[in-house]
Amino acid sequence: MLRKSEEQQEAELALLSTEDDSASNTDLDDLEANRKDEPITNANTEPEYQTPTTVKFIWLTCYFGFSMALTIYNKLILGSFKAPWLLTCLHTSFSALGTFAMLKMGYFKLSKLGRKEHLILVAFSVLFTTNIAMSNLSLSLVSLAFFQIIRNTVPLFTVLIYRLWFSRTYATGTYLSLIPIVAGAGMCTAGDYHYSLIGLIVTISGVVLAAVKTVTTNRLMTGSLALPSMELLFRMAPLAAVQSLIFGIVAGELPILSQAMSERTADGSVLRTMCTVAFILGNGLLALVLNIASFQTNKIAGALTITVAGNLKQAITLALGIIVFGDFAINLLNGMGIFLVLAGCAFFSKVELDSKRRAASSS
Predict the structure, then answer these.
(1) Which intervals hold domain Sugar phosphate transporter (predicted)?
(2) What count of other Cβ atoms lies within 10 Å of the Cβ of residue 105?
(3) Are 173 and 304 in contact (CB under 8 A)?
(4) Could you tell me what percent of the chain has a pLDDT over 90?
């Protein structure tokens, strides 16, 4: 029972660190990559360099704000209901229902897809849930501090994927800005590192998978398939919900959820029951809003920007954890890490703005 409890706690931590990713896939052999007759796309022709800065800033702000809110909300939910897979099922179910309602209200229309495109979207949903599963497995094999410091390298793998698969280059300043962002995030999570060889391999594989997921999400919306963000979420969410439910059943989370609900409604209070249900449904609604913001932000700001925002979120979450929850005391290394992440993100933003101005002037 003790071992099972530890695994549940590790799964909860994995969900908090990967939910946004919420965000966010099929393998990188997407439709655009197969079009060999077309010239290599220059970075400055990417949608992220064509979108007005104000629009990108608004979506990034929404994504960051909703992401922070859901992280805190998840922490509160998992404190009472220790069922991370069922929570993921709740999130994706709300995303499916919410986007279905938007479809019926005319906010977007479905594209005509062939068999190959449908298979790509099935693979996309599998990659989404597999990414969470790999995170849970990693945490069962390595310490949380080691997991986090390896996870912070997702931006580096994102750049590597773009370089090797799409032959895309970035400004020198972009590469340089990743150094303080990754190093600073590592300093934020510095702690007692414990890992085995198999744990190291699984954790690195999970990081590569997370980068692949983020890049592929972007390519499905900006490549030759060019699906609207809400349509992509609409097509992916039901599949991911079913897969998450299966994982939850296998992990034995249904009895845990049932027991937790029984304990909270044991006094027979109708008001308490209604508050509990509203508390859970509110989490699902926030997840829907975050997923819409996450997919749209990925489309117009780019996969690399999303991963950088993830490292920034980790630094801010650390600060909030100290201020709001009093989880642990900050030390000099943590403080320097937060500063480096903030400085690196500021430098990254400046470089990206300069790249956009150059793209606008050359067009």
Answers:
(1) 59-349
(2) 8
(3) no
(4) 26
